[in-house]
Amino acid sequence: RPRSHTVTTTSSSFTANLSASSSTLAYDREFLRTVPGLLMVTEIVLGLLVWTLIAGTEYFLYPAFGWVMFVAVFYWVLTVFFLIIYMTMTYTRIPQVPWTMVGLCFNGSAFILYLIAAIVDASSVTKDLDNHNYNSWAASSFFAFVVTSCYAGNTYFSFISWRSRTLQ
């Protein structure tokens, strides 16, 4: 004898929320036209140069260059992360985080640690150490100081932003 089959369909709130949240995904192109945005892109490009110039050598034989590699790679990854946060305007969706303070702490620590790393890098570069790696290490030292100045600029702009928020 034939059985009757009842099919029940339900609508999931997950798909409705997914489509609603993906339609509100923002992209801020204007951020790259600001001075902090340009500095951040410069930090990413030149920071990549710093750690690739060192990574192409036998840096692991010299602890000083290991420190420079740590700082360069650590802040390169975090800067890419923050660029994505600013470009997608994720900071507007997480208002519980004090983003101006986070930016100030990030840029300030990057400036200080990159300055130390650049000084260590520059003081470790000698022709006596390893002649065939000299040019890479010297170039990485130069670019480390340039990246340091970019982080100093972003620290200044982060301080101005933080200061204007705390005075309100």
UniProtKB/TrEMBL annotation:
Keyword hit for Membrane: yes
Pfam families tied to this protein: MARVEL
Cellular location(s): Membrane
Listed GO MF terms: structural constituent of myelin sheath
GO cellular component: membrane
Transmembrane segments: 31-54, 60-85, 97-117, 137-159
Main subcellular localisation: membrane
GO annotation (BP), single: myelination
Keyword Transmembrane annotated: yes
Domain MARVEL: 31-163
InterPro entries linked: MAL, Marvel, MARVEL-CKLF_proteins
Keywords of the record: Membrane, Transmembrane, Transmembrane helix
Entry membrane topology: Multi-pass membrane protein
Official protein name in the record: CKLF8 protein
Organism expressing this protein natively: Myiagra hebetior
